[in-house]
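Re: the request from the purification team.
They wanted to know what the chain is likely to look like in 3D before they choose a buffer screen. I agreed to run a prediction and write the result into the notebook, where they can find it.
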Amino acid sequence: MSSTQDANDATMLGRRTDGTQVRRPLSPHLQVYDMMQMTSALSITHRATGIAWSFGAALMVWWLVAAASGPAAFGWVQWFLGSFIGILVLMGVTAAAWFHTLAGVRHLFWDAGYGYDIPTTYKSGRAVLIGTAVLTALTWLALLISW
């Protein structure tokens, strides 16, 4: 195999157990996935909801710090979270949390070796989507009833 001329090529070189050099394949990126395929769409959405869930955790930290800071800061945060935009953000974070949790459970089953056949993959994907919608609605229904 020829020597590398580009630093990026160096990361693609590897060795077999017998010592011969091989070129490692490039990992596919978003442009090669069929976004209409359920497995690809749910995988990417799982990653995106993980990021959204992180923002939700930061939002909760903001709320807690405001509560510890005093009535003025807490009142401002409560005003924002009670506004139309704030409620939309909270609904989005709720949906992201449920989706990420259910997709994570789906991945745990895959890690245990279950559900790899195509029909089961599509059934579990639909279950994640339906479960997200139902659990988000039930969460907000319980919130509104207890309010």
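For the purification team: The longest strand covers residues 13-15.
Please add any questions underneath this entry.
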